[in-house]
């Protein structure tokens, strides 16, 4: 029995070793004091390393000096039972002959030891390391690139139910510092700091130079900002010929993602970074939530102006026809708002969404539209479409208010339809579909705007049962020069026909585009080829008008 148990243990050991060496050439156990306690592998035949000779040396001494800061940081921030890497590293010349290797590591539960898995001469593994760009050619991002990378990292963290921090670092008197230590030493310091900040960042890339001497990095909450500042000050001393170094100020802003919508997060991030660029670490923002509140506070006058315009209906309606591509007749007109202060409409609409007033504005537009149909449409039976933002249509109070107004004007159901815009902001598809169904039951048609070829659009179409879809103008612009886009639009059109959903192509600007769209099976079009938005609807045959 004992022999069977021992045999089973040996087989299990051999199996684990086989799995390990299927992807690695060298396995290393690092003790708590940073020395190598155990090494096993076939690295000698590949790069000349005798695994037994490694025992007792400092593990960082195995690698190029250029890699040691990165690897030390990786070990410091390693979480229990979570793999670090892969990282493309270079072995120290006297130990590994300068060979490159792919390193992964893990810290196991209930142990202070650190375990390394190192692979050599594996083309696929090296290619993978280049793709993840964890190490090679690191550069600090500029402000705009950082904002995009930070938003992507924050979105991913939020989707995983996690939170992140953003640390801001400010080197005071940067011009004096650079002049004192000289360009060569400054460049060495900056390279080392770039490696350090990148290694601390959540994805190896979300680190940036926002302004001269001002840096930012998005990282997980396990990173200690004071220690990070201390490491930078240590690098400063190492690269200062006098050994004096220089002071680095830091401030950490908590993302606090659970309290903000995606749009609010974006606005708060931009505002916070702009404040840091202007004020350095003296800014008074502690979380992105407080950053958004500060953004709202700074825009208080603009908010008051927007509220007044909405309350006083200080905007006009313009009309753009949706044309039957066979007959040239307008099947309906889209009602578009134009503010009387001459500010671009989209700017005000986005601002309204940012401050949570999209629903107020949409109700005001609906009131203007209903008034127009009742009193200003010259007795015609023409149909009109009003836009509802994705933010508004998810607001239950908004829908109750809208529905009450529609029920007082039931006779308009065959003349008034609704376009749901900014559909990518919709989170509760079932709620929106419920509202759409109520509108349809009362006789109002519904269109889904900005429809694309992505999987999200198909999900919306599956979950929200609309009467029309309007294909995003980016596809209309590409179909003449991209067979791929043309095929995608054709397939979308066929799918909608099968579902008895009418299709509108927007941003048609040339007759060639109109002809191509029609050949792909799309029945309706909208764009400057037919007409720009006008102060009042013009009832004409738009194909004949274009010909003349």
TrEMBL record:
Segments forming domain EAL: 299-547
Molecular functions (GO terms): cyclic-guanylate-specific phosphodiesterase activity
Alphabetical list of InterPro entries matching this protein: Cyclic-di-GMP_PDE-like, EAL_dom, EAL_sf, PAS, PAS-like_dom_sf
Domain of life: Bacteria
Name under which the protein is recorded: Diguanylate cyclase/phosphodiesterase (GGDEF & EAL domains) with PAS/PAC sensor(S)
